[in-house]
Design brief:
It is built from 8 helices and no strands. The chain is elongated and about 85 Å long.
């Protein structure tokens, strides 16, 4: 049984290898341009240790986008080795292809920080909205909706000034608890 499974598998690998080799020879100019152009993606694949390979995804996507115009130019220009070598030796082509890959690296490095800032600002806005709602409720209902702990915090301090209702007060915690969506 084990011998039967190995033969079809080795035959399948052999057929795929022959097909890839045939395509490589038939499209040698394209293969040359793609091989040279996708070096940044290969480097990203090697150095990327993140789960999900997000660095490789960012670099590969933009690397292919930078490579696409030159592949298009090669296909429309006759698909010859001389056209492929002209693209590979063109400094402008290298600049565009590798700059696109560099933008992929920058996206990978910069977007997590930008998302963190956005989330922090969104949380601050939500806190502000909840505090305004808390003030409205307290003005509408008075101290009767506060717990005993929150009422103690609102009693006048020793120096005669009212204790502020701050973010750590029991009133804030009580209103937030009552307004939380998980409360059922």
């Amino acid at each position: 049984m084990a011998g039967r499974q190995k033969k079809p598998r080795s035959a399948k690998v052999l057929m795929i290898s022959v097909a890839v080799l045939g395509l490589l020879l038939a499209a040698l100019p394209t293969a040359l341009v793609i091989t040279v152009g996708l070096i940044p993606t290969l480097v990203a694949l090697i150095v990327d240790l993140t789960p999900g390979r997000y660095l490789t995804r960012c670099v590969a996507g933009l690397n292919v986008a930078g490579l696409a115009p030159f592949i298009h130019k090669l296909w429309l220009g006759g698909h010859t080795m001389s056209a492929a070598l002209a693209i590979v030796t063109d400094a402008y082509a290298w600049l565009v292809i590798y700059a696109a890959a560099a933008i992929g690296w920058l996206l990978f490095l910069g977007l997590p920080g930008a998302v963190a800032i956005f989330r922090q600002l969104n949380a601050k806005r939500r806190i502000y909205i909840l505090r305004e709602r808390q003030r409205t409720l307290l003005n509408e209902w008075g101290d009767s909706i506060l717990t005993a702990e929150a009422k103690r915090e609102r009693e006048p301090a020793i120096d005669g000034k009212d204790a502020p209702v701050g973010p750590e007060s029991a009133a804030d915690r009580e209103v937030a608890r009552r307004m939380s969506p998980g409360r059922g």
